Amino acid sequence: MTETSPIRTRIAPSPTGIAHVGTAWMSMFDLALARQTGGQFVVRIEDTDRTRFVEGAEEKIYEAFKWLGIDYDEGGEKGGPYGPYKQSERLNIYREYIDQLLASGHAYHCFCTSERLTQMREDQRKAGELPRYDRLCRNLSEAEVNEKLNAGTPYVVRQKMPDEGTVSWEDAIRGHVEFDVRNVDDGVLLKSDGFPTYHFAVVVDDHLMKISHVLRGEEWISSTPKHLLLYQAFGWQPPVFAHMPLIRNADKSKLSKRKNDVSILSYREKGYLPEALLNFIALLGWSHPSGEEFFSFEEFLKVMALDRIQKTGPIFDTKKLDWMNGMYIRKLPVEELIQRLQPYLPSDFPQDRMQQLLPLVLERLVTLKDIEELTSFFYRPIEVDAQLLSRKSTPEVVTQQLGEVINAVSPLEDWTHQRLEGVLRQLQEQHDYKKSQFFMMIRIAVTGREFTPPLFETLAVLGKQLTLERLAAAKDLLSTPKTV
RNA sequence: GGCCCCAUCGUCUAGAGGCCUAGGACGUCAGGUUUUCAUCCUGGUAACCCCGGUUCGAAUCCGGGUGGGGUCACCA
User: Fold this and answer.
1) Closest nt to A428 (CA→C1')?
2) Nucleotide nearest to A453 (CA to C1')
3) What pTM value is reported for the model?
4) Mean pLDDT over all residues of chain A?
């Protein structure tokens, strides 16, 4: 079997926008195959569409890979022995191979204008036929072709499909797949601007870069016959194809940025840990042989095998990612967590109190970014809603209770949560106050919120001075007679 | 519409003929712990698309339906 020989894989992103989670997902599998066999994982930039090129998109991809820890071997910013790894820099190479195809009769010049093609498709649509090139230029004589060429007529080069027969391959994920060539169009190989189309460039590059296994989305299945026919025309050995399922939106359509957040870097911005994201997407369409759900990227690279990849397209539902991220955060050693938290801390965050604050909110963090929202009342002025404060009682009672609380805690010498708890519980029991009302009142008075970390610890960390100030302010808030 | 791919709880999945009265995880619901939220613990809810066939036996194999998806560009 081929398992023992080194596998060379590649990811071929187009710099047309954001770094896509699908790219990272596919790359994980590519990397695993390469690592397991001592092969290489290559990054090739497919920038043959000048109209969709986005400045900076390529850099985003490298940045995303770096953040995730997806370490490729060749291409990208690293270069390598089969470069250039950017298609726009390989134009002369494609030209050379196009000429080869033209000479061998596997391709032909087409001078049809886009207007004619549009009209042709329109007519076909009206006639109920399937839209495809009518092969008008396929039988142009050499003289006719030369004449047009000499006249400088714009042209494209098309692939000459066989008239009949079938093309098939053994897909590593789907098994035997077969197409009738009569369903394959005479597609464009070289565009009029001199750039190759994806279909042509991908075949030439994969061959020249010695890619042995092509992992790509299911969306490419229907164009694989074109690619296979090109390999045949060149007399090249095609790679193993493995068509992965398509990740989907909730409505089952192909994952899109319109319906989902598919930007890798935006997950970083939102405070997700790269290891959590990686673990989460590894579980899409694949499962660990042991049934484990939590495993490191290293572990994944070791145990991944194509035969555990599902054929059905998984829906990208990040609910589980939220849960997983929280779990990963809580498993991090405190010192490391503090380091990871740094980029998400607001400028006014009291770094010197991190050791006190973190334990209070640790189990409430879903993302790293939550740290700000969860701790802000410790170091920023609060706003207390009078209505909320006396919601479960009356302003009079609350005013009185707050007074008692102030009297009870004011004398405290050691401001610890144990002492605070002792004093306040005693007060509550002494008057037989309803716990939920009494403690919630204090909570709202000193934090302005209903949901906070445990009350006594919160008070302890808040400090005596600030606690008393806020209690007094809350009391004033209610006792100040409202003038109508 | 042609061609192609696919089909297990709401979601991610286990399952490669009997171990399945279909397992796990997330979510959700209920309860416990608790001064709130969260964490944690316990329990519940919930699926093999349909119809044939093969077989002693089918979630698993075959066929047909149905459903969903992809693709039909000088985009990838």
Assistant:
1) B35
2) B37
3) 0.94
4) 94
Rounded Cα distance, A103 and A316, in Å: 47
Residue with tokens 């994980």: A28
In DSSP notation, A262-300 reads -BHHHHHHTT--HHHHHHHHHTSSB--TT--S---HHHH
Extract the residue ranges of chain A whose pLDDT is less than 50. Answer: 1-3, 483-484
- Residue whose Cα is closest to the C1' of B25: A293
**Which residue type sits at A7?**
I
Contacts of A181 (CB under 8 A, 6+ apart): A161, A162, A163, A164, A165, A166, A167, A225, A229
Q: Do A269 and A318 share a structural domain?
A: yes
Asked whether residue A121 falls in the same domain as residue A257, the answer is no
Residue A290 sits in the same domain as residue A239: no
C1' (B12) to CA (A138) span, angstroms: 50
Placement of tokens 């169009």 in the chain: A185
Query: Is A239 in the same domain as A205?
Result: yes
Q: Are A463 and A415 in contact (CB under 8 A)?
A: yes
Got the DSSP string for A73-87?
A: SEETTTB-TT---BG
CB of A46 lies under 7 Å from some atom of strand B: yes
How is residue A394 annotated by DSSP? -
* A214 bridge partner residues: A241
Strand B lies under 7 A from the Cβ of residue A25 = no
Angle CA A467–A402–A441, to nearest 5: 80
Question: What SS3 class is residue A466?
Answer: helix
pLDDT, one tens digit per residue, over A337-372 is 999 999 999 999 999 999 999 999 999 999 999 999
A226 in catalytic set: no
Q: What residues contact residue A53 under an 8 Å CB cut-off, 6+ apart?
A: A15, A16, A47
A283 and A325 in one domain? yes
- Residue A84 domain-assigned (yes or no): no
pLDDT of residue A484: 39
Q: What is the DSSP letter of A136?
A: G
Half-sphere exposure at residue A123, Cβ-oriented, CA atoms within 13 angstroms? 9
Complex-level ipTM: 0.96
Q: Which of A316, A331, A346 is the last residue of a domain?
A: A331
Looking at residue A399, which CATH number applies to its domain?
Answer: 1.10.10.350
Number of structural domains found in chain A = 4
Q: Considering A320, A350, A380, which residue would you say is the last residue of a domain?
A: A380
